[in-house]
Design brief:
α1 crosses α3, α2 crosses α3 and α9 crosses α10. The chain is built from 16 helices and 25 strands. The N and C termini lie far apart (54 Å). A hairpin with a 6-residue loop joins β14 and β15. It has two domains: 408 residues, Rossmann fold; 101 residues, ANL, C-terminal domain (GMP Synthetase, Chain A, domain 3). The protein is globular. Strands 3-2-11-10-12-13-14-15 form an eight-stranded mixed β-sheet. Strands 7-6-4-5-8-9-18 form a seven-stranded mixed β-sheet, sandwiched between helices. By secondary structure, it is α/β, with parallel strands linked by helices. The structure holds adenosine monophosphate (AMP). Adenosine monophosphate (AMP) binds next to β14, β19 and β20.
Length: 533
């Protein structure tokens, strides 16, 4: 049925279940204890540790007991480590013990760490002493004096001792679907971190709907390089894989050659990665030599997925590509492409809304629902919306309105079927001489130029126009970059002159969030400091 305005009601044909993070693991472990649940994605196949569902549950329950002996249900404990399997076990252990896991980015520096631990009033932290030269234990010690509520800290190097402290007689609490389960600090691309307070119902159902739409089942092997501290890792990958009863191959850190090797040697069927990761894999010389015949579905999202990338991956791998759009505040998925969506939908839209969620597109100023096709802010409502930003009432009220609508800050337009197309971030929009310009449109076209490895377009201040369009380009081959004149001419054939960048910058690498998204605010800050000349 064709929509009359930019509003899609919730599809309620698949129910929201009253599930919890611990509960979904218990169920699968009971039903198929011997099936392979988790594989540590290390380079050396012989060194890869493997857990069956029964083993994963047993270890998670042991951890839950050790936690319960030290913390009260509802208290916050933080995890500060890369994608090690113990992270996943702690996620389930905390869920079973009724604790709230604060997921901390392992790249954080001492002041960033102090901010999230203080703001979340964390009572305990699990960490690795150092990660890729980041001296985490030292950082923690440096700020511990600023954290009066932090009672306990545990190094993952003492994990066995911690587990052994569990008394088998310790009772685990009843945990309800609407209990808080995680606090995730979001904002990598906008700067200011706020802790999204997420609940069991939101995370478990969102991951299940995700896995169902991607046709994951007990035969699926899911390779995830997504960081566990982000919903792409600890929700879609971990909870999606468990609820589909499949196997999760968890990479400790993203490395494109290792991702290709794991996909081949572990018989991966599903691959999830942000676009920069997929680009990295395609750029590997051995891409063509790997037998990736087992891979059936590739899913990307979390940042703009260029249509050209979708075409390349589908063409070169013979897989079905899906795009997920969402944000941490929504647990995270909001729209998700169906594997059998038409090519023209896959190469331009974000697909249809996920089950049990309503979406609408509104005028950001008046809040009125817009006609079909008119660009505006995407709002979502449903079971997955976070409780709020932890202890930030004002920021919560700016984001979730009185009727429960989450205002995403993303600009989209909706067609008469309810498929949305993203045009940019509300805050990203460039206003040049009063005219709204959406960077995404320009980035999409530049990305199709073979000499462009990756690109970000931003508005820079200009005395005459207010803002002008600037393109930051990472050359595919730095030895033979396209000239600015060539890129300019390439765009001018396809876009109006006012959208053609007035300034060009060539970078060796982009500032990325640890989940692989280009940090436009860092690009802007670097430009302001004169780092790009
Ligand atoms: P995060 O909360 O870190 O997952 O970031 C969410 C933001 O990433 C969204 O508000 C969007 O701006 C962006 N994003 C997520 N998925 C997509 C997608 N498929 N296409 C474009 N942008 C996306």
């Amino acid at each position: 049925m064709a929509l009359r305005e930019s509003y899609v009601p919730a599809d309620t044909s698949s129910p929201v279940l009253e599930t919890t993070v611990g509960g979904v693991l218990r169920k699968v472990a009971e039903e198929q204890p011997h099936a392979l649940a988790l594989v540590e994605g290390l380079p050396d196949p012989a060194a890869r540790r493997r857990w069956s569902y029964a083993e994963l549950l047993a270890e998670s329950e042991q951890v839950a007991r050790a936690l319960r002996q030290r913390f009260e249900p509802g208290e916050r404990i933080a995890v500060w480590a890369p994608n090690i399997p113990e992270w996943v076990i702690l996620e389930f252990g905390a869920g079973l013990a009724g604790l709230v896991l604060v997921t901390v980015n392992p790249a954080y520096q001492p002041q960033e760490l102090a901010y999230v631990l203080r703001q979340s009033r964390t009572a305990g932290i699990f960490y690795l002493p150092s990660v890729r030269g980041n001296p985490m234990e030292e950082s923690l010690e440096a700020v511990r004096g600023e954290l009066p509520e932090l009672r306990e800290s545990f190094s993952f190097e003492d994990w066995e001792t911690f587990k052994a402290s569990a008394d088998p007689g310790t009772e685990l609490p009843q945990v309800a679907a609407d209990d808080p389960v995680q606090i995730q600090y979001t904002s990598g691309t906008t700067g200011f971190p706020k802790g999204a307070d997420l609940h069991h119902r939101g995370l478990t159902n969102n991951a299940r709907f995700f896995a169902e739409r991607l046709r994951m089942d007990e035969n699926s092997v899911y390779l995830s390089p997504m960081p566990l501290f982000h919903t792409g890792g600890c929700v879609l990958a971990v909870l999606g894989s468990v609820q589909s009863r499949g196997t999760l191959v968890q990479m400790v850190a993203f490395e494109p050659r290792l991702a290709l090797e794991l996909a081949e040697s572990e018989g991966v069927t599903h691959l999830l990665g942000v676009p920069t990761m997929l680009i990295g894999m395609l750029e590997q010389p051995e891409f063509a030599e790997r037998d990736l015949g087992s891979v059936q579905y590739v899913c990307s999202g979390g940042a703009t997925v260029p249509a050209e990338l979708v075409r390349r991956i589908e063409g070169e791998l013979g897989v079905s590509f899906s795009i997920i759009y969402g944000q941490t505040e929504a647990s995270p998925g909001i729209t998700l492409m169906q594997p059998d969506d038409a090519p023209e939908d896959k190469h331009g839209t974000l697909g249809p809304v996920m089950p049990q969620t309503e979406i609408k597109v509104v005028d950001p100023k008046s809040g009125a629902t817009l006609p079909i096709g008119a660009p505006g802010e995407l709002c979502a409502r449903g079971y997955g919306v976070m409780t709020g930003y932890f202890e930030m009432r004002e920021k919560t009220a700016e984001t979730i309105d009185a009727e429960g609508w989450l205002h995403t800050g993303d600009l989209v337009s909706m067609d008469e079927r309810g498929y949305t197309t993203i045009t940019g971030r509300l805050k990203d929009m460039i206003i040049r001489g009063g005219e709204n310009i959406y960077p995404r449109e320009i980035e999409e076209i530049l990305f199709t130029h073979p000499a462009v490895g990756d690109v970000a377009v931003l508005g820079l201040p200009d005395p005459r126009w207010g803002e002008i369009v600037a393109a930051f380009v990472r050359d595919a081959d730095p030895a033979s970059p396209a000239s600015d004149a060539e890129l300019h001419a390439f765009l001018r054939k396809r876009l109006a002159p006012q959208k053609t960048p007035a300034r060009w910058f060539h970078l060796d690498a982009f500032p990325l969030t640890p989940s692989g998204k280009i940090q436009k605010f860092v690009l802007r800050e670097n430009w302001e400091k004169g780092l790009y000349g």
